[in-house]
Amino acid sequence: MRELIIVGSGPAGLTAAIYAARANLKPLLLAGFSWGGQLMNTTIIENFPGFPEGIEGPKLMENMLKQAEKFGTEIKYENVVEVDLSEDIKSIKTDSGEYQAKSVIFAMGSEPRKLMIPGEDEFYGRGVSTCATCDGAFYKDKVVAVIGGGDSAMEESTFLTKFASKVYLIHRGNEFRASKIMADRAKNNPKIEILFNTEVKEVIGGPSENDPNLKVVKKIKLFNNKENSESELYVDGVFLAIGHIPVTGVLKDKLPLDDHGYVTPLSFGSVKTNIPGVFVAGEVQDHTYKQAITTAADGCKAAIEAERWLAGK
Amino acid sequence: MDSVVQSKVVEVTDATWNTEVIEASNTKPVFVDFWAPWCTPCKMVAPILDRLSMSMDNIKFAKLNTDDNVDTAMKYQIMAIPHFIIFYKGQPFYREPGARPEPVLRAMIEEQLAKIKSESE
User: Which of these, A31, A56, A132, B41, could form a disulfide with B99 (CB 3.0-4.6 Å)?
Assistant: First the structure.
């Protein structure tokens, strides 16, 4: 039975681990099978303070992991499947084991939102992707579409121009939500063609040239919501950049969740929940800021709160 | 401290593809891991395949670096990695993209091996 279990290995989880380990809480961090959070799928982070030349996402996460381990964090690369927060001793079940602790910090973050349109699941990994940095290299000289209007969509579409011959940037609104600096980069890129007021309704596949038995993405069905017209666009790949949803499935009926699945903490910005000894950090509860630095700050706060709570017991 | 990795995973290339995978799959299914050095989930999967290769005798394990072997990667339309294809009798029998934990990979392979077995009976 441990003092503290941390679930999640993005900036929130790993920062919590650094602080908790230095406070001698000997934390167990359940990192998930694919550890590191969303920053593992990005190229350079330019706005994390302390790095005027920027730092690669995976490098920053690797540094955080090393730091957490240096001070004594025990890390297991397991996925949490069930939690029991009803007793004094909290119980966390993973795909490989079961662990008990007096206190828990939930920092599972969020994962890419899906459009939930026909063809999306069928062609995942065969033309449909949620990660341009992961899969972009396979679309050399091909035509791709990026769906979204925020900073991620701007970054992904700009990144893909390094490989693709053409990038369609498709957004259902009539202006981007992205920060001006990112939106301008996309707008000024000659390889990017922007389609506003456009929704993607279906991903349509066909036999690949090399193997008629293998179906790959061939085109997408579009709907212009301003002119109420339909059309088709031939693309080899579709990249979703339409936001994220919190990974709070295991917290259903255990902690209060709002309409979008985010945990409702004791008050806005707090890391405390309605259960003493249970804390939430990062994008499982934050849908306002969603920055690496704010997420890391949450992790720090949660560790400090956990330490205080444990000391007071 | 140096530890020797126990593994029967064979590294294949564009040049050795036909012998090591296509022809070999005529007698025994071949599991191919399409990976690249910059792919972090691929690194999570590699040691799992090393272990599986030591304990699963009914299937051969191979891996192909998609950076260095673009022809084969393109031939099989690899658009996301890690990508796993099980070859049998020279053809892709089953394919699935995405890293996953050891028990899930093992179950996936065993399920396909059972299908191959029942098809050949």
Answer: B41
